[in-house]
Amino acid sequence: MRHIFDAELTQLGQDLAAMSRRVEHAVTSAGTALLTADLQLAESVIADDLAIDAIERDLDERCVLLLAQQAPVATDLRVVVSSLRMSATLERMGDLARHVAEVARGRYPRVAIPQSLTGTFAEMHDAAARVGRRTTTLLTTHDLAVAEKIERDDDLLDELHRDTFNATLGPSWDGTAQETVDVTLVGRYYERFGDHAVSIARRVTYLVTGDSEVAAR
Amino acid sequence: MRHIFDAELTQLGQDLAAMSRRVEHAVTSAGTALLTADLQLAESVIADDLAIDAIERDLDERCVLLLAQQAPVATDLRVVVSSLRMSATLERMGDLARHVAEVARGRYPRVAIPQSLTGTFAEMHDAAARVGRRTTTLLTTHDLAVAEKIERDDDLLDELHRDTFNATLGPSWDGTAQETVDVTLVGRYYERFGDHAVSIARRVTYLVTGDSEVAAR
Question: Does the beta-carbon distance from B64 to A84 stay under 8 Å?
Answer without folding.
Answer: no
